[in-house]
From TrEMBL:
Protein name: 2,5-dihydroxypyridine 5,6-dioxygenase
Pfam annotation, one family: NicX
Membrane-traversing stretches: none
Alphabetical list of InterPro entries matching this protein: M29_Exopeptidase, NicX
Phylogenetic classification of the source organism: Bacteria, Pseudomonadati, Pseudomonadota, Gammaproteobacteria, Enterobacterales
GO MF term (any one): metal ion binding
Entry keyword set: Metal-binding
Record-linked SUPFAM superfamilies: Thermophilic metalloprotease-like (SSF144052)
The organism of origin for this protein: Escherichia coli
Amino acid sequence: DEPGRWDHWPSGFVLTWPDEGHSNGQVVLDRGDILLPMKDYVTDPITLTVERGYVTRIQGGLQAEVLRDYMASYEDPEAYAVSHIGWGLQPRAHWSMLGHYGKETHIGMDARAFEGNFLWSMGPNNEA
């Protein structure tokens, strides 16, 4: 490692970065998936359209509208970049944890790390 670099091994997940500017397709967040910025479970599908490494459309119902508003609040095109993808490996983390505690009491690490989880993230990629 190097000074100033942050690694978070206790959480139990691995991640990698995309080939910046080359990701294309759709990501569908479905019922039971987790919106970490809101620390909430998805109740209706949200479709994210990715073009040249950036989310260009967020479609769906109320939660999609909330996510669009949240992302727009950054007033930064890099907020829409495909940041990283990861896989949860931690058998002691639980998908259901968000339902057990108030949103202000945790950072959502269980949601990122529960065994079998697939994590997909938007935002500036400061590591790659």
